[in-house]
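Blackboard transcription, Thursday session:
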Amino acid sequence: MTSPYPIVAIAGILIVALSLAALLIWLERRLLALWQDRYGPNRVGPFGLLQVVADMIKIFAKEDWIPPFADKGVFVIAPAIIMVTVLLSFAVVPFSPGIIVVDLNIALLFFLGMSSLGVYSIVLAGWASDNKYSLLGGLRAAAQMISYEVFMSLSLMGVVLLAGSFSLSAIVEAQKRLWFVVPQFLGFLLFLIAGVAEARRSPFDLPEADSELVAGFHSEYSGMKFGMFFVGEYLGVILISSMITVLFFGGWLGPWLPPVVWFLIKMFAFICFFILLRASLPRLRFDQLMSWGWKVMLPLALLNLIVTGAVVVAWQ
Amino acid sequence: MWSLIKTIWNVFLHSFHKRVTIQYPEEKPYLAPRSRARIILSRDPDGGERCVACYLCAIACPVDCIALQATEDKDERRYPEFFRINFSRCIFCGYCEEACPTYAIQLTPDFEMAEYNRQNLVYEKEDLLIDGPGKYPGYNYWRVSGARIGGKDKGEAENEAPPVDLRSLMP
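(Written on the board underneath:)
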């Protein structure tokens, strides 16, 4: 099912993903404003859409400064890691039958591995900045990822059991009769929570935590390096939304409209939900986050896995 | 957990609320007449300057943005020779208005006074003086005060009794 012209697919997905990530900056500001009874950016261009362009011009013109006390090599490489890992994860996302870069048979594992690697970006950025707030942010990111990776992968195993495959297109095909959100509702909730933590979005934005840690791991970053963290975060939001769509909401499946349109509609709904979460929930405390991950979410994920396994075995 | 879901739902309902933002340059907000912005010098109903150059506003000013020089005209009425407010320093606290004994200096709701050149923010007396009595119509300091000026002796002001002759021994 891989696209006949891989280069076209790669270029298309890259361009669409990156411009969507840029547009998300505008969308997030507008939606947050809507839910706070404000307007948000509405001056530059129609509905303020060109605000993105203005922001881009500004961020490119900013001084790209490396603090003298920073560990230069690591400081420079850290923002690249998040971009690379997130963009690599997009390689396995099946947007529609023809639009996929590579249809790996272990695509789900690849996604989990790449999203785990992404945390190196945060930890290294916090470490290389040589700044106590950045280091605290990096530390929190590491602890958060360890707590949430575990039940994130476990919560997906139910889907894998039902579909009988790690390949994402096979998982989508397996949802022809029934979306996995119905039999795997608990798994969906767990993955949603873990996904928000994975994308480091509010209420799990502890590594950034503007109110306590200045800007957490990217306090010392400026210019396009900061921009890469920013775009990386929004790419992460898009990635998690598309994964939710693929794993639980039948990916490109849907009547009448072209498959890719269905995919984008579902993905967009989850992106909006992520922003709604940010608009409504306060940030968790550090110990609350850890104890939730280990004491509530992990047992629930295991329970979900055991029950699903038992049902699948009993069915056969 | 239930309260979290309720919170998310309540925030979502704000999609259908009216937005509170006022789109400023197109849409002007209502400003109360007592709101404090551009400072003016008013005139009394007869068209004379109200300011008697007592310096109280300059003394009350916490940022020292008011400068003036008192002088007298041929009727011995005090008035400012120059009156200068540096609006790049002014913090619009309104203390000058409170200190003014003659209602001369007043703050108005007009706040659109941005300039590209800082020097243009120094307002001279001709920039500050307006033609009307501002917030206090009908008030004329010289007509109600006991001070003597040319054309009005002591005891001739409104509601003022004639001065007592100190040298008379009559009870």
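Lecturer's comment: Chain A has eleven helices and no strands.
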